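Subject — a protein and its fold

Tokens — whole-number codes for backbone shape
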Amino acid sequence: MLILGISLLVGLVCTRLRIPPLVAFILTGIIAGPQVLSLVGSAAEVDILAEIGIVLLLFTIGLEFSFHRLWELRRMLMVGGLIQVSLTFLVSFVIATLLGRPAGEAILLGFLISLSSTAIVLKILDERGETGSPHGSITFGILLFQDIAAIPMMMAIPFLTSLASPTLADMASGEPLPVVLGKDLLIIVILVIAARWGVPWLLFRIAKTRSREYFLLLLLLICFGVGWLVSLAGLSLALGALVAGLLIAESEFSHQAIGAILPFRDIFISFFFVSVGMLLDIRFLQAHLGIVLLFIVGVILLKSMTAAVVPVVLGYPLRTIVLVSLALAQVGEFSFILSKSGLDYGILSLDTYQVFLVTALATMAATPFLIAAGPGIADRLCRIPFINRTLGARCPVQMTERPRLRDHLIIIGFGMTGKNLAQAAAAGHIPHIIVEMNPETVRRERALGKPIIFGDATNDAVLREAAISDARIAVVAINDPVSVRRITAACRGMSPKLYLIIRTRYLSEVKPLQDLGADEVIPEEFETSVEIFTRVLHKYLVPRDRIEQFIAEIRSGAYQVLRNPAAMPSSLPDLIYRVSDLSIISYTVHPSSPVAGQTLGEINLRKNYGILVLAVVRFNTTITSPGGETRLEPHDIVVIQGTAEQVAMAASLFGGAGAGGSAGASPEPSG
């Protein structure tokens, strides 16, 4: 009760300061632990809850493992992730060795520093709307590789004890290393073979009961049962849970399993970070404050520089390099798990562990502020001539000569919006040029003959290359809100006559972008609402011209109507209320139906039932506006219109067989 209560209070304060929840849990452990208030005396019980959290965390990671997802991100993973993790590990290992640390400890420190926080970084990027941006894509690929790399790192920890102390290794394992390794491999093989038939069958049987309680119990049984079996071979319970998750990952039940486990994982993993905070020694921090601050600054600089290598190798400009490097400058949550294992196995000394805890905590807390400062730092670096020449405007794609563009369209960003706009421009023979930051996309599209150039549109040199001073229209369609504002200001400053159209995700961006010089700002969230409402009005048979008039009123007022319900015009026609009970539906004429073989004039549906026949579908032919002489044949599909009661009464005439029609009013016949 104390831990949950303090976590909520500390979390509220941290939220106001934009500090991640993970850091709030660690601070809770510091406050409630023996170093500050000593409110929680039984740390062993907290450790038990923390162990459950680690087990569930590894289980869900196994559940989320997808070979298809890895293949889609293979370039970012195999190039970006491998470079970042390998380079950071090597530099950290060398520095730790030079500082006189044992080989096992130096390797473990390399593991710890090479990992970054997936939870914190992705949450911040999502809040800023930058997950689809170039730096967001690179960052996501690297973080995913780190999560995968953490698995062999965790498996390697028991074997690092032999490097730290052979005696310690014997005490930890109790058996020779080859025997332990052989036992590990044997149990994993047995589990995988058994799971090929047993686990899917069992999951299917329990799923057929449609009981969420039984399904959850089975998941926990698999998670802890497999974890226990694997732990018999000398591996940790958490690694066994990871294997259990992998056994279910490729089944059709994996998504349901993730949804069932996530709430329990989030609660118990919070106890793990609370237990980490309890281990932090405040007196040690006070006695070694200078060393700790040196390590904090050193880790941020080291991780920033090694992460910056990835976008440099991939060919991205300076802005992307800076944003990626700062996004990955912290120590990750997996590092806490690895460090705790290293402490338990005796690989890390207590003093080293204390320095690591404070360093990791400080870098995590600094992450929101580093990411927010990224655009400003990139701007300042761009003003340094040497850096701008070497990293800012370089273009790895071979440019070809092209005629001078005039009165053309500039498309900034080649995502889905940019692609569709470019296709429409090409079909309409509108001269256009595309500006894109992904060098791989530029190479591919240039090979197809697209007029595309590589570059960061926040850079004036790139806009000049796109002949912005001679362009008629520029459309900005990228997913980075900060870059969108900078591009808007740059375009307006370089070409006052340019008609500037901006696509943005949120309505809150409309006014700032208009103040920067945008002629039109199209917010996705409200355009989606407009499109949905348009279709609703169509279904209520509102005339098309009245709908277009209504939509024009919404857009002309910068979407104020949707922001302020009191401003909603009352000009929609009363036709909505007069025809809202109309239904358009289709029926199949059964061979034994009383109307089969009769003409519409003989049946006289309008007089007898008050319904109107809109069309008759016969094989592949549609008879629209059928007359009284039209004869209904068996298996014809008849599309009729009337009130819900009228069409229901008429159903018996056709044999009562529905033909897949649509209930509800429609301006066009269905079926």
Remarks:
- DSSP finds 31 helices and ten strands in the chain.
